[in-house]
Design brief:
143 residues, alpha+beta, Elongation Factor Tu (Ef-tu), domain 3, 2 domains, seven-stranded antiparallel sheet, 4 helices, 34% strand, elongated
């Protein structure tokens, strides 16, 4: 024998598997815990936009829905995502001009200047529960 079996463990297994009621209750309580946790976890829903132009403390993106005060800027997601704060948003001829807080524009210029990479901006659009995302939307973030 590899290890000594405990009397409490034997009794637990006998009670749990001895009756379908106890076993069903155990399975249903585990399922209820999973559903409660999935309902309580909130996820941000985001939209990704390509950055058309960068400048000192400003970004130009195509027409988008209303932006919140924060966004995430990156060239490649695997290399790093940088949070930026949006001060205000104005309409331009080729999209929206987002004016960034001081210091965040330097991040955009340094990212775009390194090898002429194209930049992308993730803008949070709201939040939803994990339960809604998985079961009602099938894992898709929009539409």
């Amino acid at each position: 024998m590899l290890y000594e079996k405990s009397a409490l463990g034997r009794r637990y297994i006998r009670v749990l598997t001895g009756s379908w009621g106890w076993f069903s209750g155990y399975v249903l309580s585990g399922l209820a815990v999973c559903l409660v946790l999935a309902h309580s976890v909130q996820l941000e829903t985001i939209r990704t936009y390509p950055v058309l132009e960068t400048g000192p403390d400003r970004l130009v993106i195509p027409y988008a829905s209303e932006a919140s005060s924060k966004a995430y800027l990156y060239a490649r997601r695997n290399e790093g995502i940088y949070p930026v704060r949006i001060k205000r948003m104005e309409t331009a001829e080729n999209g929206y001009v987002l004016f960034l807080e001081e210091g965040d524009g330097n991040t955009a210029l340094s990212l775009s200047g390194a090898g002429g990479k194209s930049l992308f901006l993730d803008i949070p659009q709201g939040s939803e529960t994990l339960l809604r995302r998985i079961f009602l939307k099938g894992g898709k973030s929009f539409e």
